[in-house]
Amino acid sequence: MSATYVAGWQLENSLVWDSAIRYSTAGELGDDFNVWAPSTVVKLAVGDRWKVHAEYFGIFSSGRETETVQHYFSPGAHYLVTSDFEIGARVGWGLNDQAANFFANAGFGYRF
Questions:
Q1: Residue 83 structural domain
Q2: Which of the residues 9, 25, 46, 100 could staple to 50 if both were Cys, CB 3.0 to 4.6 A apart?
Q3: What is the rounded radius of gyration, in angstroms, for the C-alpha atoms of the chain?
């Protein structure tokens, strides 16, 4: 099972601040537990088609035999190719020992 609550705010100077809290159930080798994943991101429009962002997110287990706590920071950029098609990329760093040291990804979004 998984559930997410999301809230967002339009701030001054083309800033957008979005936050979410995700909850899910998980299990591994008979060890059933909960996973909480909060995130918050600030986005800034740079011209009509570009946006840059800075995000914090975490992944925390609860009720697991061996608890896990992971903190991350991730900046990125997005380009609106058309009004319905966007491409983007981000990189990120783990902020504690249990988090991955580095990650990078790219993707696209299409509204239909």
A1: 2-110
A2: 46
A3: 16
